Amino acid sequence: MRRLMVMKKWLITPVAILLMLLLAGCWDRTEINDLAIIVGLGLHETEDEEVQLSVQIVNPSSMASGQSGNSGQQGTGQLTTMEKEVGKTTFDARSKLQEKVSRELFSGHNRVVFISEKLAEKGIRDHIDFLARYTRPRLRSYVYVTKGVPADFFKVMPDLESSSAETARELADLRIGMSVEVKELLQMTADASENAALPIITIEGEPPHSYGLRVQGAAVFKHGKMVGQLDDSATRGVMWIRDEIEEATIMVQPEGETGYISFLVLDATTKLVPEIKGDNWTMTVQINAIDDAVENHTTLDLMKPDTIKRLEKQLEEKVEQRIHIALEQVQKDMKADILGFGESFDSKYPDKWEAVKDNWDEKFSEVTVNIESDVEIKRPGRSTSPPALPEDEVTNE
Amino acid sequence: MKNGQKGRLPLKRRRLKQQKAKQADKTAKLEPSVDSKAPLSDSLRANENTFRSIYDNSSDVIFRPFYIGEQVKALLIYIEGLSNIEEIDDSVLSPLIKSKADGDTTVDTLINKKVAVSDVKKVTTFSDSVKEIASGSPVIIVDQQTSGFALGLSKWENRSVEEPQAEMVVRGPREGFVETIGVNTSLIRRRIRSPKLKMKAMEAGEYTKTAIKIAYIDGVADQSVIKEAASRINRIDVDGILDSGVLEEYIEDHPQSPFPQVLSTERPDIVSANLLEGRVAILVDGSPFVLIVPATFYSLLQSSEDYYGRFLIGTSIRWLRYFFLLISLFLPSLYVALLTYHQEMVPTTLLFSIAASRAQVPFPALIEALMMEITFEALREAGLRLPKQVGSAVSIVGALVIGEAAVSAGIVSAPMVIVVALTGVASFTIPRYSASAAVRMLRFPMIFLAGTLGLLGIMLGIIGIIVHMATIRSFGEPYLSPMAPMKWRGMKDVLIRAPWWKLNTRPRFTGETNDYRQADNQKPSPIRGKD
After folding, report:
1. How many angstroms separate the CA of residue A25 from the nearest CA in chain B?
2. I need a surface site. Which of A41, A213, A389, B295 has the fewest CB within 10 A?
3. How far apart are the first and last CA of chain B?
4. pLDDT score for A1
């Protein structure tokens, strides 16, 4: 009898564990081939004030055959497909979208979120909530404001990348223009200043012959609504202040010369130093940059320390000029603090910040901005004196 | 131990009961029963009769009667094929037969003056004689004497010392143990010449009478381990021990565990190294595998070559082995979990290509993985058991059918084939076959857990395995030592393979009685050489 009990104990434990596993069941198990892998989400508002959700779904089998040598279009079909649906809310639209997509919509690999200009003007707060709350889309997707309907963007078949969403992601990764992830957008809108800036993306070429996308300028959001747009150079100015510059080219035309010298910014750091004296709020923007000369169309000899000094001065002016353009638009016209001034004041003068917090937009426009830039030309490039010039034509001072 | 003794009594009793029943059976058949414990009598005829009845129906036992000095009757008993006949003829029979007629024929005189054999043993009982005869030593009994003598002239066909097939090294000794225990002890003795090396003789098996030797270095090995090993072997009361693997199962601490708690090796150098570390070796006659206790999990992952090569390379190879141990245990289950539950964790482009290759596959990833892993195990087993000539056919069929054809037929996906192949290769990086078998077996519950509970299941599995490993002990030494319990001293031979001059202490549990194994400051340097 005791033997039997022992046997039973031995049997019961593994059997119970096995049954427990079956109880847990594979209820949320999804095979990879039952997934519609979304790489791009688009949000737009229709004429009827409803949300239009568009998605870009990859077709893995044609994507794989495209990889293995066949030229993309000749594969089993299109690399990506676009589906769209309208609904009262974003998730409502998503649910309706699922009705006509045979595979489970899976946004765990979402690359970009496109927000149409129209929706941006109306306000994106409600829609951002979806991105933040619904656990599936990843927070590392890049957010763009589109000039036009996002659905059109997803129809673009880019030349180099496999999908337009991928193109947008690669463009953001290059950090030529602004690049903002969902996570950063959430941080920006949750900030005390509640202002945000998103890059704007446009289609290259006229549909249906469009072949790519282009990042162009930035959209400025105030309290969740787009209040204005910055052009490329103003965007660069904003990026200088926000310490987001990674690679930049600056051209200068030295005095008394007809040609330009191009410089590549190798390393740039920006520090914001806030200061409050009485009622006077000042912000000092300290910029340190190291440059590399990459192209010289002038007759100047870049090996001469004097020349370098002069050029450095000019470069500093150029950078400051860019920043001034940005400040003019952002601070004076839009009165939207997308530069991080608010945070900076908040961390150094929490009490005084608290007092102006609710009135920050006005106060922001009154902040005096000092720019201290220090540009250093580290390397004159591979060839030292202008190589295309005979020696006697090189300017000697 | 108390439990062990308690459990042992009824067992012993049952066996005795069986024996009694057998004996009753024998007497019923009117067969002569022999009390083998009895001493030899002084009548040669009576003794001969007893021996003949002991070796009833044994045609391979040779009885050779002869006269010593043409007068005194004597009898030579040996087993055909187990003894060196030429030696018996030249050194024993011929001097005895040709000796003077009126000489002294007491056994002691014969041993001391007549028999030119170095290994001679006096036997006084039938059981001793039978034991000697069984081990190949011819026994001579003389008329009028109550004792006989056994000649250590055993000689039988045995395999010569070869390179062990299951434990190859590039650099290191190429000798391997053989099936004869005497050769095996000599292989160890040749490496450790100190008289401190002890070989305690034991025996197990009711019918096999298998010789067992417990080898240890006196003053280095822990006495309690030696005693424990001896008591566990003493406990064994079975018909036969045919291989050290059988003995292993009888003396293990936790026979239910998939992990081997005894290290078995064919290499005398590994045994010697372990003896020097204070471990105890158990040699079993008839098996080329010598058991080493206590064994820890990490000792199963060490190869002798780690110690013969340069320490930097030894360390990196050890890390490689640890890494592939994890791969072979977790890769298929991770693959299944990621593909069925956590697709967002796969890099996007990789996900696309996996999705593309899985598009035609009819099975869920879990079934696919189980199917492929089982097929791989079957292939491995088939390749192992088949004759060498057919073995290559199996590998060709396996590679073609399981790899290429299955993928192009859309039954399995190419990434799964890669995963299975990688897992298979990884499991062979573990130097001990028994350990790699444990890992390969555990892979299946892991895959199942991954397929039902995802990463949560894998975590549960890992916790289960680690808890289990932390629970078990091998002859008193915790299985995960020196990692758990944490002993920094042992890390130098676990995390890394420290250079020899830094391996100055023995492992904590086995070498406590004699901590230091070498002098300090042994690091070679040109300055020290000039002293």
Report:
1. 6
2. A389
3. 55
4. 56
